Structure formats: C-alpha cells, structure tokens
C-alpha cells in the first residue's frame, strides 16, 4: 500500500493542532523560529524550502517531505529545481536517501496534481 502525501500531511496537521492546543508556548516558539528561518534574506524563501526539503529527505521524514513539497509548490518550484536538489541529496546520502528522494518525487506529483485540480464544493 502506497502512502498518500495529501492524507499524511492532513493527519500530521491534526496532531500538530493538538500540540498547539496542549503545549502552546512550545509550538509558538517553534513556529516563530520556522518563520524567521524561512523568511527571505540573502537566500530567498524558495531556496530555503529546497534546503529544508533536502534535510527532510536526508532525515527520512515523510511528513517533512510532504509539508516542504507543499510549500515549494506554493512558491512555484520547477520540477528541474526539485530534481537537482534531490540529486544533491542522493550524492550526499547514498542509497537510503535515494529512496526518500523518490518519495519526494511522488509527493511532488501527487500534490502538484491536487493543486492543479479544480476546486469542488
């Protein structure tokens, strides 16, 4: 059975909602750090998200892959940019990272198709 990155990110988001409710100060601190780290500066937001995706792939974190691919699609990443980033991941991480790079491609294809689909009521 193949995982769905739409389902995975939705399910993890529900868990994150519980954490925001039950440990709000911790989550506020984490969210502030994330916003600050991802804000464009000397490196723009798209390239920072590509770095975050690369770390998620290297760390073998499915949810990280899903959330960062969603952000990359929102920022207008091209397939070529994604693929080159995954090539660097594979070069640095070898075979196990290659497997998660393939998962990132699946996430991109699934989430891109969903973002292109017409909204339903």
TrEMBL record:
The Carboxymuconolactone decarboxylase-like domain, residue ranges: 24-106
Q: What is this protein called?
A: Carboxymuconolactone decarboxylase family protein
Q: Which Pfam families match?
A: CMD (PF02627)
Supply the Gene3D superfamilies for this chain. Answer: AhpD-like (1.20.1290.10)
State the organism of origin. Answer: Azospira restricta
Q: Name one GO molecular function term.
A: peroxiredoxin activity
NCBIfam families (UniProt xref): ahpD_dom
């Amino acid at each position: 059975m193949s995982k769905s990155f739409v389902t995975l990110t939705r399910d993890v988001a529900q868990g994150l909602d519980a954490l925001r409710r039950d440990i709000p100060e911790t989550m506020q601190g984490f969210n502030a750090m994330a916003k600050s780290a991802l804000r464009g500066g000397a490196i723009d937001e798209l390239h920072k998200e590509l770095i975050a995706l690369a770390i998620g792939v290297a760390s073998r974190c499915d949810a990280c892959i899903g959330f960062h691919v969603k952000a990359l699609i929102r920022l207008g990443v091209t397939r070529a940019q994604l693929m080159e980033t995954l090539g660097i991941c594979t070069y640095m991480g070898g075979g196990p990272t290659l497997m998660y790079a393939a998962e990132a491609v699946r996430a991109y294809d699934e989430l891109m198709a969903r973002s292109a689909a017409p909204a339903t009521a």
